[in-house]
TrEMBL record:
The gene is LOC107909313. Its EC number is 2.7.11.1. The keyword Transmembrane applies. It catalyses: L-threonyl-[protein] + ATP = O-phospho-L-threonyl-[protein] + ADP + H(+); L-seryl-[protein] + ATP = O-phospho-L-seryl-[protein] + ADP + H(+). It is a single-pass type I membrane protein. This is Receptor-like serine/threonine-protein kinase. InterPro entries: Bulb-type_lectin_dom, Bulb-type_lectin_dom_sf, Kinase-like_dom_sf, Pan_app, Prot_kinase_dom, Protein_kinase_ATP_BS, S_locus_glycoprot_dom, Ser/Thr_kinase_AS. SUPFAM superfamilies: alpha-D-mannose-specific plant lectins, Protein kinase-like (PK-like). It comes from Gossypium hirsutum (Upland cotton). One of its GO terms (biological process) is recognition of pollen. Residues 1-24 form the signal peptide. Residues 793-811 have a biased composition (Low complexity).
Length: 821
């Protein structure tokens, strides 16, 4: 063959191959198909369509995932989630008879859009930048024949909808994957209530509801059981209803934010946002809040336990039905018996001994119990034994109840749980230790028991005397290492709870020298012993008049506790939001608390060897001593817990109103996140109320929006003051606080002051110019109060950067410089 002719053939084949590979960027047309490693990419590169293989699975699926802006392959939609393919080279996604159809290796159609088209030869499939795969009757058509957003799988993207078809009474479902490597429909689903109550439900196995959002409140624009939506400035939710359907949809106020809702394999609906700085997904919100609130999460004969991993364990006498599934966090198969019951088998298999019952205290009883008549616990047990299908019983003040068949939704509660019940679990006799010992063994055991009792008595006396004289060891100077029994004794077995949060619960205690302490029980510690002690020692070296002092710690296995000075006046929220006028904090006290808190945060950010970001500034974490001096609590715990900040914050209740936008916008979190939280708290110093609350007319009022409006319109700032103070506050100080608060909550963190600058402003050393209204306050003003505060004048102000002037030299010169850190 002529060399030039050969080269021409090769060039033609190369161009043909790459034309087939690219498929015209974002479109599949009638004469092109998708197979192998070929993909199409949306016009802006946000999403990709192609074959993918989840995890270590050998199965292949057609799906849509995020494009070049998200480095982790994150699938948002799956076509053939129930019928995978093995050979993608022989499988093919193409236009056929006016539909988009997936053919497997044997050229058998296994998935289709399944619509009728008027002109099948012109139909095209286009992947849009919203992640929506649209089937159109020609490239110029604007009306979709079919679109993936109308057929979601486990992910709800912006612009998509979860609807109820009123004509068929069918709800559109968001269904979890079976496990991390199998996108087949799992047991958990989210849907709009078929009864038409305009609320979302999460169901187990499409039958049992275990969470609801509450009904939609059109006036407040929130779901009634999701109150944190009052402070939402990320999503714009909308509800539509006509004679054909009802549905919710949402959009993002900031189109650059990458965020999604997912019906997770955990049975929780989760809101996640992509953090560009750390290149990971940030879990920002989830419901139900506790994992064990998910119905039957651990499957049949599995028990769910909060407070540590793993959440799921098999009951005694049972083992995992599928170890491989459990390894993939799929517990739906549950557990099965290790030894079959006597009632079910030939008596020779268990030496003719009847089944027995294992006592399981402090549990949340499974549902679907059958009440039976019994006057005693022995009669209740006998009733269960007589029924071969009876697997457990309970007998208490509610009478006798028995369970037939599988036990579902069993939860092991903490030892101090007040609502715990006792369950008697039926097991084969061989699961219990044998009692048919011969006399010689019994006599020997009895003699040994006497000796053991004497040893235990002596040991008990020694331990009792030791507990009465707690003698913790000094570690790194003044920091003390306590024993767990010592703290258990000091707190009277943790009986007087002072409060709790995302890091753990706090209990009041008294040491033998009569000094009062506060003991925090840390939850879900992932750090090793050496690392934990290192972090605690670091916290122990931090000393400041406006920081709560760490006195010691306890580290015994999984038991990790911190010992602090006790603050007799409790937390700031109990005083700030007090409804009795006579007990309201004076303005002078509020101002001093604001200043002291700022000094404590400035010390953490600027004076420590390494900058310490608190991550959860709010009134609940500002404690007050006997003289009402503020002490910042819980600093350093985010790192100490050993979890990423996003996980810590999503487990805390009531913190969303103080979170900076960068937690979900993808910007790396810095100390300026604390500045934002501090600014939100300053608004509450002024009003004496929570920033978001419902007024008498039923509308949700967001105080920071009102304060920003008053400041920019030069209205009377005293109208913002807590009515309980009767206007008793210096107008200059009140104006200063409001200005600082508005600068602290700016959307762009570079425009917020540092905590050191905040201290100087509150001390009167620096003055500060008038702030612009932050964009999120404008959004809340538009959507919560139906008032537009973004005017032409405020638009001009929005380009400002914060500046300050030294009050000592302001008469001599106007020296202005940037406040950005």
């Amino acid at each position: 063959m002529d060399p030039w002719l050969k080269l021409s053939v090769l060039v033609f084949m190369w161009f043909s191959f790459n034309s087939q590979l690219s498929l015209g960027a974002d479109t599949i047309s009638a004469n092109r198909s998708l197979s192998g490693n070929q993909t199409i990419v949306s016009s802006g590169g946000n999403f990709v369509l192609g074959f993918f293989k989840p995890g270590n699975s050998s199965n292949q699926y057609i799906g849509i995932w995020y494009g070049n802006k998200v480095t982790q392959q994150t699938v948002v939609w799956v076509a053939n989630r129930e019928i995978p393919v093995r050979d993608t080279q022989s499988s093919e996604l193409k236009i056929s008879d006016g539909n988009l159809v997936l053919f497997n290796e044997s050229k058998v159609p296994i998935w289709s859009t399944n619509i009728s088209s008027s002109s099948s030869s012109s139909v095209v499939a286009v992947l849009e930048d919203s992640g929506n795969l649209v089937l159109r009757d020609g490239p110029n058509s604007t009306t979709p024949l079919w679109q993936s957003l109308d057929h979601p799988t486990h992910t709800w993207l912006p612009g998509g909808k979860i609807s109820l078809n009123k004509r068929t009474n069918q709800s559109q479902l968001l269904i979890s994957w079976k496990n991390s490597e199998d996108p087949a429909p799992g047991l958990f689903s989210l849907e709009l209530d078929p009864e038409g109550t305009n609320q979302y439900l999460i169901l187990w196995n499409r039958t049992i509801q275990y969470w609801t959002s509450g009904a939609w409140d059109e006036q407040a624009r929130i779901f009634t059981l999701v109150p944190e939506m009052r402070l939402n400035y990320i999503y714009n939710f909308s509800f539509y209803s006509d004679e054909n359907e009802s549905y919710f949809t949402y959009s993002l106020y900031n189109p650059d934010t990458i965020s999604r809702f997912v019906m997770d394999i955990s049975g929780q609906i989760k809101q996640l946002s992509w953090l560009e700085g750390s290149k990971e997904w940030n879990l920002f919100w989830s419901q139900p809040r506790q994992q064990c609130q998910v119905y039957a999460y651990c499957g049949a004969f599995g028990s769910c336990t909060e407070g540590g991993l793993p959440f799921c364990n098999c009951l005694r006498g049972f083992h995992q039905k599928s170890q491989s599934a459990w390894n993939l966090s799929d517990f739906s198969d549950g557990c099965e018996r290790t030894t079959k019951l006597q009632c079910k088998e030939n008596r020779t298999l268990t030496n003719g001994k009847p089944d027995k019952f294992l006592t399981s205290p402090n549990v949340k009883l499974p549902q679907n119990a059958q009440p039976v008549t019994a006057t005693s616990i022995s009669e209740c047990e006998s009733t269960c034994l007589q029924n071969c299908s009876c697997t457990a019983y309970a007998y208490d003040s509610d009478g006798c109840r028995i369970w037939i068949g599988q036990l579902l939704d069993l939860q092991q509660l903490a030892d101090d749980a007040s609502d715990g019940k006792t369950l008697y679990l039926r097991l084969a006799a061989s699961e219990f230790s044998s009692s048919s010992n011969n006399n010689g063994i019994i006599i020997g055991a009895a003699a040994g028991s006497v000796s053991l009792v004497l040893v235990l008595v002596i040991f008990g006396i020694w331990r009792w005397r030791r507990r009465t004289t707690i003698n913790p060891k000094a570690v790194d100077g003044s920091l003390l290492a306590f024993g767990y029994r010592d703290l258990q004794s000091a707190t009277k077995n943790f009986s007087e709870k002072l409060g709790g949060g995302g890091f753990g619960s706090v209990f009041k205690g008294t040491l033998p020298d009569s000094s009062v302490i506060a003991v925090k029980q840390l939850e879900s510690i992932n750090q090793g012993e050496k690392q934990f002690r290192t972090e605690v020692s670091t916290i122990g070296t931090i000393q400041h008049v406006n920081l709560v002092r760490l006195r010691g710690f306890c580290s015994e296995g999984i038991r990790k506790l911190l010992v602090y000075d006790y603050m007799p006046n409790g937390s700031l929220d109990a005083h700030l939001f007090h409804e009795e006028k006579s007990k309201a904090l004076t303005w002078k006290t509020r101002y001093q608390i604001a200043l002291g808190t700022a000094r404590g945060l400035a010390y953490l950010h600027e004076k420590c060897r390494d900058c310490i970001i608190h991550c959860d500034i709010k009134p609940e974490n500002i404690l007050l001593d006997a003289e009402l001096c503020p002490k910042v609590a819980d600093f350093g715990l985010a790192k100490l817990i050993g979890r990423d900040f996003s996980r810590v914050l999503t487990t805390m209740r009531g913190t969303r109103g103080y979170l900076a936008p960068e937690w979900i916008s993808g910007v790396p979190v810095t100390a300026k996140a604390d500045v934002y939280s501090y600014g939100m708290m300053l608004f509450e110093f002024v009003s004496g109320r929570r920033n978001s609350e419902q007024s008498e007319d039923g509308k949700v009022r967001f105080f920071p929006t009102l304060a920003a409006s008053v400041m920019t319109q030069d209205d009377d700032v005293l109208t913002l003051l807590d009515p309980q103070l009767n206007g008793d506050a210096p107008e200059e100080e009140l104006s200063r606080i409001c200005k600082v608060a508005c600068w602290c909550v700016q959307d762009d963190e570079t425009r917020r002051p540092s905590m050191g600058q905040v201290v100087q402003i509150l001390e009167g050393v620096l003055d500060v110019n008038l702030p612009p209204i932050p964009r999120f306050l404008q959004v809340l003003g538009d959507n919560s109060e139906h008032v537009v505060f973004f005017t032409e004048s405020s638009s001009n102000q929005s380009s400002q950067t914060p500046s300050y002037t030294s009050t000592a030299s302001s008469q001599a010169k106007s020296n202005t410089s940037s406040m950005s850190s």
